[in-house]
Predict the structure.
Amino acid sequence: MIASILHGFLLAIGLILPLGAQNVFIFSQGAAHARFARALPAVLTAALCDTLLISAAVLGVSVLILSAAWLQTGLFAVGILFLLYMGWSVWRSKPAGRDGEAVEVSARKQAAFAASVSLLNPHAILDTVGVIGTSSLSYAGAEKWAFAFTCIAVSWLWFIGLALAGRLLGSLDKTGGLMKVVNKASALMIWGVALYLMYRLAAAV
């Protein structure tokens, strides 16, 4: 049991730490809002999406879904359009400055954006199915679910910590200048994922 928990912890850390559109978006939302609670829609959505992906991978459901070529094509097409729009929205967002005013991303948009970079990101899906799903085959019964629960717990703690780190940076950035850079970087990262999806979609056709 301890071995499966340690394996899940180290594996989840290795997969979630690299910089990606999901991490950048969660961090930027933590920094963009005056209160941490206002960034919770993005945090909770990302964590729930990871929970869904990990659970599906461990149960073997995601392998069956990804085996349908038409479904992959549809997901990629929808993902491209949504990520392009999302990147534009984040690019145009204005951080709070000395006047304390900012154009914050609404709770509904936060949830939609977080879901898109979580569920329509080929890297996230392939990592979950190919790495976590495959690794879970080494365990059975309680050990398998201890492994899965550990991966899920790491994901939740990471997103909460990431948003809190963003909130700390946002509180220190009184002029809003640094957050402008973070917002632009977030948008570029999101557009980068959209371009990668275009490449994958073109190669599959």
In short: Residues 97-102 have pLDDT under 50 and may be disordered. Residues 80 and 198 are 7 Å apart (CA to CA). The first helix runs from residue 2 to 16. The chain has one domain: 2-8+20-204.
